[in-house]
Every structure is written in C-alpha cells, then in structure tokens.
Amino acid sequence: MQSQQASQIVDKLPALHHRLLLWDCPAECDYTCQHVVTEQRLAREIPYKEPIQQFHGKWPFYRFMGMQEPFSVIFSLLNYIAHDRGVRQLREKLPASYPLRKYYLMFGYCGLVTWICSMIFHARDFPITEKLDYFAAGGSVLYGLYYTPIRIFRLDRKDPMKQSVLRIWTAVCILLYTLHVLYLTFWSWNYTYNMAANVAVGAVHNLLWGAFSYVHYRRVGRIWAMWPGLIVAWIITAMSLEVLDFPPWGGMLDAHSLWHLGTVGPCIWWYK
Ligand SMILES: [Zn+2]
Predict the structure, then answer these.
(1) Which pTM value belongs to this model?
(2) pLDDT-above-90 percentage for the chain
C-alpha cells in the first residue's frame, strides 16, 4: 500500500520549485521512499517500533520549498546577515589607515562566502555543494587561526622582524590550506580527517584567544577584556551540538542546524 503511495507520488512530474532545486525523478523517488520506510518503522506497535534510521549518512528530513534541510538554510542565512552587517559596520567605523582593518574585513568576507556555501549545501546536497561547504568552512576556520597571532602579536606593525614573521606565517597558512584541499580532492574525501583538521585548527585558535583574553583581563581588570575568551567558550558549547547527533525534531530541526544557530550570537558579538 505504501509503495503504491510512493509510486503515485513519483509518477507526477515534480513541482516547479522542486525542479528548480534539481529534484529529478530519482531524487524524488529516494526522498519519498525514505519517508515511507521511516513512517512504516515508526507506525509499528511498541515492541516492534523501530528508531529512525539515517539514509546515505543523513537523517530523513522533511524538505520545505524544495530545501532539504530548511532550518540549516535559515540559520546559515542568519549568520550571513550577521557577517554582512558586521562588514558594513567595520567599513563605516574603522578608518582606512587602521592597519588591522583589512584583516578584519577579510574575516568578514570569509564568513560571507562560508555561509553562502552553507546555504547552498543545506538546500541541496550534491558532491559539489558538499565540497564547497567544507572547503569554505575549512578556509574560514584557518583564516581565524591565521589572523589571531597577527592581532595578538601585532604582526601588522612596520617592524622588519615582524614583517618577516608575517610573510612566513602567511606562506605556511596558504600551504596548509592548499594541501588540505588537494588531499580531500585528489587523495580521499575523508570526513574523519576533515573534522580532525578543523577541530585541531579551531583548538589552537581557541587556546590563543583564551590565553590572550586572560592576560589582558589580568592587566586591565575589566570584564570586557574577557570577551574574546567568552566568545570562544560559547562556540565550543555550540560545537558540542555537532557531536550530539539526534534525529530531527518534527523531521526538520536537528543538532547540526542548532549548531548553525549557535554561531549567530558570537558572530554579532565578534564585530563589537
Ligand atoms: Zn552545515
């Protein structure tokens, strides 16, 4: 009966907004069957009732307006808006002569690109949209680490020693990112490695900011000096949602989307 229902649904041509988001017949069939199977499993009486299973490594989400993971798309959009507003504030408030201005702006541009790629990926998951999302996110995480010592040790200053260190540091980061992309593209699309690389880079970044905040706080004794450290603590808490992977509530709201929601606050805060 349910497979009849599935074949009836896929018999029709997908709606226009679904076709625009590249839902072709095999994709429609896959989507419909995932929900038929999930509903069957959940409809069983108690001892036979079975938990929701993942398909192709993903929970069976209900799409909205053709978007595969609507909440992740919406929360990515909120992050995008936060960066967009932040970049505009930086442009207005920081004088062009301020040496760190370009580094702050670049952080904003990395954020904008990352959240556009995230919206596209969560709207439709294809190998290419997944790669773009991962590479952009990896780039942003690495850029966060790149700019941290520049800010903490003021490598932007016109001191010849600092300038040499800055050049070497820039070359190291470009090399690391290139190797990362080449490895994932030509060697192996390795989720464990990708996660480990991001966590490692993020951890060094967090340690640097944590230590910097603490030293700064000890020196000035004001709570605002702890802000960078608190932002980092918030991000780590939100990140733990990534580990707590549970089936989406109402078939739509999952841990990954909440992690994207969790980064909106620190993002607004960062620009302050
Ligand atoms: Zn995501």
Answers:
(1) 0.84
(2) 51
